From TrEMBL:
<keyword id="KW-0596">Phosphopantetheine</keyword>
<dbReference type="Pfam" id="PF00550">
    <property type="entry name" value="PP-binding"/>
</dbReference>
<dbReference type="InterPro" id="IPR009081">
    <property type="entry name" value="PP-bd_ACP"/>
</dbReference>
<dbReference type="InterPro" id="IPR036736">
    <property type="entry name" value="ACP-like_sf"/>
</dbReference>
<feature type="domain" description="Carrier">
    <location>
        <begin position="1"/>
        <end position="65"/>
    </location>
</feature>
<keyword id="KW-0597">Phosphoprotein</keyword>
<dbReference type="InterPro" id="IPR006162">
    <property type="entry name" value="Ppantetheine_attach_site"/>
</dbReference>
<protein>
    <submittedName>
        <fullName>Phosphopantetheine-binding protein</fullName>
    </submittedName>
</protein>
Amino acid sequence: MPFLDEETPVEADASLTELGLDSLTLLGLVAELEDRFSLELPDEMLVMETFATPSTLWNALSELPRD
C-alpha cells in the first residue's frame, strides 16, 4: 500500500482505498497475491468490493479452492 511502510499495522476493517489502493495498485496487489500464493483470482473477485478492507480480502481468499 503506497501510504504505509512495512512496519505499520493495518486494522482488519481499515479502508484499503483510504490507505492508497487504486486501480493501478490493485493490479499490482493481485499480481503479488497470485504469485505469492500460487493461485489465480477469478474475474468475479476482481472488483473493489473484494478489496474494500483486509478482512473482505482475506474472506474472499479463504473461499478459494485449494489444490
